[in-house]
Amino acid sequence: MSVATKLKSSPTPVTEPRAILGPTGNRVRVSDESKRKPEAQKKPQRPKFRVSKSPQSVVQSNVSVDSSCSSDSSSSNSSVKTVSSKKTVKRIGVKPVKAKVAPTADEVVAEPSPVLPEPLKRCDWITPFSDPLYTSLHDKEWGVPVHDDRKLFELLVFSQALAELSWPTILNKRDIFRKLFDNFDPSTIAQFTEKKLLSLKVNGSLLLSEPKLRAVVENAKQMLKVQQEFGSFSSYCWGFVNHKPIRNGFRYVRQVPVKTPKAELISKDMMQRGFRCVGPTVVYSFMQVAGIVNDHLVTCFRYQECNANVKKDIKPEIERLTKDVENTRLSC
After folding, report:
1. 243 labelled as ligand-binding?
2. pTM tops 0.90, yes or no
3. 138 annotated as a binding-site residue
4. Could you report the per-residue pLDDT of 182-212, keeping only the tens digit for each?
5. Which residues of the chain fall below pLDDT 50?
6. Residues 284/258, Cβ–Cβ less than 8 Å
7. Cα separation, 159 vs 271, whole angstroms
8. CA dist list (Å): 290 to 3, 37, 324
9. Biased composition, Basic and acidic residues: where in the chain (predicted)?
10. Regarding beta strands 19-22 and 205-206, do their DSSP bridges make them parallel or antiparallel, or are they unpaired?
11. Residue 147 labeled ligand binder
12. Staple 255 to which of 164, 172, 250, 272, CB 3.0 to 4.6 Å?
């Protein structure tokens, strides 16, 4: 047999991996199929997150957790959570905001909202800057029917003094007026002499001018005569309005008159009887303050109150009139 036939009949040699020299040493080249198998067998790796380093106290607590029994593990875990939650991050320029805690049902107390009273609506000539005594006169006296003779004489003197003084000034000197005029007793004032008259001074000056002071003394004398004729000064004054106050329903200050025909009639009759300084303007001021006329504006809270006071004063006035009539019959 020849050498050529031996070579043909020999089986094909198996290819083995060929060693390749490399700089780090000899290594075997692996085929692509051998590389794919281990890659398919590899499990997908989870994304790695950055784990914050726990403080030393937490580590120590974890160690104690491992060493403790299972019953205490839950309590130790809760303590670990509270420690880690207390750690706050400080931010520059940002202040920590305190969380508002809602009150419990026991803490919530229903407080009633305060009800503010509405301011009283007065006549327009009374302002928040008015004298308190002047405001008090408006709220308590002005427009209220008066039937007492001394009080009527006092108001008549004040109405005469308005020619020289204002209402606030008169009211501030009211006690002085009452002291110097003996509480406006007409029987006492009628006996004032000239010396007594000139002694009615306040801080070295007369309370009123001499003509006004003499008019007060003269009016006291005439008032005594009216009392003898009509039984009382009240009966004389209220007789001009049939013993019922006049109710004016004015809405604006400009509508309130300074004098009226009724005031002119009373003024004329009083002058004929010898009264002094009782012009129509003085008489109408006297009628307003004595309640003979109700000149409160309809928007003022005193308008209705003064009308209500009229009903209360009707019975006493009727009784007084009946007594006066009986006295006049007995005197005759």
Report:
1. no
2. no
3. yes
4. 999 999 999 999 999 999 988 889 999 999 9
5. 1-10, 13, 19-26, 28-35, 37-40, 42, 49, 51-87, 89-90, 314
6. yes
7. 16
8. 166, 123, 21
9. 29-42
10. unpaired
11. no
12. 250
